[in-house]
Design a protein that fits this description.
alpha+beta; 9-stranded mixed β-sheet; 5-stranded antiparallel β-sheet; 16 strands; elongated; binds glyoxylic acid; binds manganese (II) ion
Length: 441
């Protein structure tokens, strides 16, 4: 920011408008009788949510592009309409949800990004602010990965981490492809993949865990994201009559699945520390009270901030799966659905988030992220960090997910001033990345 830094210190986003938009978006795919919503990636509900947010971007006059995986990016136009010669400072997140989602996961980051840009554009139009770089906000396709694994699919493709053609061929459980669904909902765009590299990326997100609330802290300056390993196991045995088949003659994949589930819990207890493990899908065929199942499909989600420990957990799981299946005479097939190593964010951007939060009068602490985020993909190509706001009771991926309006506004204001700092030239002429060893443009 190049002029009048002092008056701009009091600049704030419109917190009421932010909450209004979050509630309006949350009405799309609303789960009846709850505060939650279901907008699984590339469903009709996702399309309707996209249409709404796209209309807000266009109302604001952003230059909007849609790429081949359906990521939507809006860039602030230059005041005189001339093209920018610098790369944008970008924010963004996702607007797809899990099947039992809340109104805040992902949505906050996108709608707060709109707030930041609207606030900055108002100041620019009034001649009170000049930026050296544009601000941009985007949302990335299928961050949740709940329908089309892996998670963070759109941002992975954006940064060139997965070829577009491979991503378009990914199927959901019914065999429907990403490419067909993008065509069906009208969101297969033409903007190039990989996408333009931003100058820097900052994502605002709800914490989705209990730490900030527990410690009474308003802002998390996120230092990185733990490693994620998703495996799908298909265990096949013999379907049989539940009353007539002696126990010694059964080959029950349900039992194998149950043993794996218990093993995963025991592994996390043995490993301790940051190790977590979850069997989120356990799906029996034919799923009837008096039939020994013929097949079970299950998933195992293992996460750790330490890559070598995560690898050890994966190796132990692989060995146990083979042993448990053999003991029951079952066959097992294993498929990796997602595998991302732990990511460390850029120290300079983390520091800017931290000092910005403190300068706005908020309590702040550094913390890692337990959940996966689009920012971890952008971190591969540009200086990146994240801002967390508290989640009430630490609940997320649940219809009761909630963050207090004051905390939403606090997070959005930290995002505003972090982005302004990154997009401007401080009064002394120093760039925030003056000593960058590459990456920042
Ligand atoms: C994505 O939201 C994940 O962390 O599972
Ligand atoms: Mn999210
Ligand atoms: Mn999520």
């Amino acid at each position: 920011m190049s002029v009048d830094a002092a008056p701009l210190a009091g600049l704030r986003i419109d917190g009421d408008r932010l909450v209004r938009r979050l509630l309006e978006l949350g009405e799309i795919g609303a789960i009846e009788g709850t505060d939650g919503c279901a907008r699984l990636a590339l469903t009709d509900e996702d399309r309707d949510g996209r249409d709404l947010v796209l209309s807000w971007m266009r109302d604001l006059g952003l230059d909007v592009t849609i790429d081949g995986i359906g990521n939507v990016i809006g860039v602030m136009p230059q005041r005189d309409g001339a093209p920018w010669s610098t790369q944008p400072v970008m924010t963004g997140s996702h607007i797809d949800t899990v099947g039992t989602g809340g109104k805040y996961d992902g949505n906050l980051g996108v709608l707060a990004g709109l707030e930041v840009i609207e606030t900055a554009m108002t100041e620019i139009a009034a001649g009170r602010l000049t930026l050296d770089r544009p601000l941009a906000v985007g949302w990335f396709t299928d961050e949740e990965g709940a329908r089309f694994p892996p998670d963070m699919l759109g941002s992975l493709v954006y940064v060139g981490g997965l070829p577009l053609e491979e991503a378009l061929d990914i199927t959901d459980r019914d065999g429907v492809t990403v490419g067909d669904e993008l065509d069906r909902i009208g969101y297969r765009g033409t903007a190039p993949i990989p996408g333009p590299v931003p100058h820097a990326f900052v994502e605002l997100h709800i914490e989705q865990g209990p730490v900030l609330e527990d410690e009474g802290i308003t802002i998390g300056a996120v230092t990185g994201v733990q490693g994620i390993s998703w495996t799908e196991l298909t265990i096949t045995g013999w379907s049989a009559h539940a009353g007539t088949t002696p126990m010694r003659l059964r080959r029950d994949p349900g039992l194998v699945a149950a043993r794996i589930n218990v093993f995963v819990r025991e592994l996390t207890e043995r490993f301790g520390g940051a190790q977590v493990g979850t069997c989120g899908v356990v799906s029996h065929v034919p799923n009837l009270v008096n039939v020994v199942p013929s097949q079970v499909t299950m998933t195992v989600d293992l996460r750790n901030t330490d890559e070598s420990i995560l690898q050890r957990a994966e190796a132990e799981l692989r060995a146990f799966v083979v042993e448990a299946a053999e003991a029951e005479g079952c066959a097992v097939e294993s498929r990796s659905l997602a595998r991302f190593e732990p990511v460390e964010f850029d120290e300079r951007v983390i520091g800017i988030v931290e000092t910005t939060a403190a300068s706005l009068g908020h309590s702040v602490r550094r913390m890692p992220s337990g959940a996966g985020h689009d920012a971890q993909m952008l971190a591969r190509v540009c200086p990146t960090a994240m801002i967390f706001t508290p989640s009430v009771k630490g609940i997320s991926h649940n219809v009761t997910e909630f963050t207090e309006p004051d905390d939403l506004a606090a997070g959005a204001n930290v995002l505003l001033h972090t982005m302004l700092h990154l997009a401007g030239t401080p009064a002394d002429g120093a760039d925030a990345f003056a000593n960058a060893a590459g990456g920042a443009r």
